[in-house]
Amino acid sequence: MAGKANHIKLFSFNTPQMRAFHLTWVAFFICFFAWFACAPLMPVIKGEFHLSMAQIADINIAAVAITILVRLLVGPLCDRFGPRKTYTGLLAAGSIPVLGVAMAQSYESFLLFRLGIGAVGASFVITQYHTSVMFGPRVVGTANAAAAGWGNSGGGVAQATMPLLMGAVIMLGVSETMGWRVALLVPGLLMLAMAVVYWKFTQDCPEGNYAELRAAGIPFEASGKGGWASFVQACRNYRAWLLFVTYGACFGIELFIHNVAAVYYVDHFKLSLKEAGMAAGSFGLLALFARALGGWLSDRAAARGDLNSRVNLLFILMVGEGLGLLWFSQTGSTALAIAAMLAFGMCTHMACGATYALVPFVNRKALGGVAGIVGAGGNVGAVLAGFLMKGTGDVRQTLFILGGAVLLSSVCAIGVRFSRAAAANDKAATAPAAA
């Protein structure tokens, strides 16, 4: 841990740690922008391809489901090749379906490209991996959560700006049919540009790049073989699977709420589309600070207590999320519904940050494998919530069931607890860094 940063100098770009911090959240922002860029344009796309609601549901599920597999893959790839090569490759390869969706001529081709776009959601795992290897125990929770939260906001920005971008293109004299296609070229080109920047200005870890370090025989934290070996090692660790469940119960719920909140406000509270959009958008804005707050509180709890203090915080946040979700599902007035959504939304985003504040401590030699498994859990949660919604056919009933499921999942957080010896060892390792 000697080379890891134990302070976040937010306005500095002079160290490899801070360059990685800033470039990884910017890359994550661009990837999430590209991932959600199609969503606000779907009313136009639906009309052009004459899509049914069932086809739209299939498109949405496909975009989330493929991310599960890719998140499982990119974690071990980070251990093997390093986050610099892995992120550059994902940005370059991911730009192909993002650019390709603008060329789609049918439902089938659009579905295929939308499936490919879902792969860029795996950028989250690389983001968390890179900040985990660059920052020490004192601030790793804050670094992970801040990078993830700021990157997450790319989805919200896409919702707001893609219709404006399409409108600007149409004002130049382009038809609506061509306007949405031109607008979707922008995120693809941004991904290609970011791939070049990431390759040029980052390195894998404080000591350098993995390939050069292995060739020189220089030891570093993630010095294992990586790849399949990393994944197998992570799979054998029960804590990785418990955090898989907890992340499904927080980030999975976050994705689900993004998809249904506006519809819920229109159907149950008779708000206009504009009012419902503003209400639903407030949930997404919480990502700008709430996830970072969860990571920061986890670091503070560990500084005052030990590693298990992080576990206790995650449990408390998940209980708060479950209770708030039950409240949100049962309230009858618009004001109370928004208050309940913001309350459980705070706990949800903070729980996401607190979950990944624990990931670096599960298995340092298989960090990528653990990060991939836990990250995939978030998308599994979103997919299961989507199928539950299709089964019940009612948003309110689905929210109520999900609230109970989150409370049950909080038990998994307690199960992550570390032995006294492991907690003491971590405390001893943190003390020199603090000094």
Automatic annotation (TrEMBL):
Keywords for the protein's UniProt record, in alphabetical order: Membrane, Nitrate assimilation, Transmembrane, Transmembrane helix
Keyword Transmembrane helix: yes
Main location: membrane
Topology within the bilayer: Multi-pass membrane protein
Transmembrane segments: 20-42, 54-74, 86-104, 110-129, 150-172, 178-199, 240-266, 278-298, 310-329, 335-359, 366-387, 399-418
Domain Major facilitator superfamily (MFS) profile: 20-421
Superkingdom assignment: Bacteria
Annotated compartments: Membrane
Keyword Repeat belongs to the record: no
Similarity section: Belongs to the major facilitator superfamily. Nitrate/nitrite porter (TC 2.A.1.8) family.
Matching PANTHER family: HIGH-AFFINITY NITRATE TRANSPORTER 2.3
Name of this chain's protein: MFS transporter
Naturally occurring in which organism (per UniProt): Massilia norwichensis
